[in-house]
Specification:
This protein has about 220 residues and is α+β, with helices and mostly antiparallel strands. It has a single domain, classed as Jelly Rolls. The strands form two sheets. It has a seven-stranded antiparallel beta sheet. The radius of gyration is 18 Å and the shape is globular. The structure holds N-oxalylglycine and manganese (II) ion. Manganese (II) ion binds next to loops.
């Protein structure tokens, strides 16, 4: 059989990625995927350093939940401090981060026609005693949020007693729901459908560090 140049090009160009395939299957089957060591120890250390530098320079802001709610109420819903990351002026640490994210996005768009066009990411610090009550990520009134991604930057000896689990609530077929508790372990990435899964961050006893973001359509 004669192959056209285009067919040949596509065969050479497209290499199936087992990790990305697993993420896609997880998302199809249960709307979330948990990937340990998505970022390796070295990458996490560099990102944590970058976060802490900016945090100590006082660049973080109290996270909002909508401009119509006052600060006292907001604090009873979420207590984290955030700093948006601009890809255009990303430093070395953030570049590594975006390289991996962009590679995943390209794969999702190519294999599942997900139509992800934009993304937004912020660093987050949950100080001692803070939490984020059960919510859906679309209550920020942004229907373009398709996938939520959280990457944890805590240090190696994060312990279950520190709290701060991400709890994802999955509806079951019998009308009940399942609550899945996920520890914020360094290098771990959790991806889930923004419009579908309610979730919360349990109170933390030790500052909890992460990058949270959204892959968006249209
Ligand atoms: C959020 C969120 C989860 C986490 O920022 O919207 O739900 O584990 N974060 O930090
Ligand atoms: Mn959320």
């Amino acid at each position: 059989m004669i192959q056209t140049d285009l067919e040949l090009f596509e065969q050479i160009d497209f290499v199936e990625n087992p990790l990305y395939e697993r993420i896609i299957n997880d998302l199809i089957e249960r709307k979330y995927s948990i990937v340990d060591n998505f970022f390796n120890e070295g990458e996490v250390n560099i990102l944590r350093q970058a976060l802490l530098e900016k945090y100590e320079e006082d660049n973080f802001k109290k996270a909002a939940i909508g401009n119509y709610i006052n600060e006292v109420i907001a604090k009873s819903i979420r207590g984290d401090f955030i700093l948006w990351i601009n890809e255009a002026d990303a430093g070395k640490a953030e570049k590594t981060y975006f390289d991996k994210i962009n590679s995943l996005v390209a794969y999702l768009n190519r294999t599942c026609f997900m139509g992800i066009l934009t993304k937004e990411f912020h660093y987050a610090v949950y100080p001692d005693g803070t939490f984020y009550k059960r919510h859906l990520d679309t209550f920020q009134n942004d229907g373009r949020r398709k996938l939520s991604m959280v990457c944890y930057l805590n240090d190696e000896n994060w312990k279950p007693e520190n709290g701060g689990e991400l709890t994802i609530y999955s509806p079951l077929e019998n009308g009940k729901e399942e609550a899945l508790n996920i520890y914020p372990l360094p290098g771990r990435v959790v991806i889930f459908e923004s419009q579908e899964l309610e979730h919360e961050v349990k109170p933390v006893k030790v500052p909890r560090l992460s990058i949270t973001g959204w892959l968006k359509t249209r």
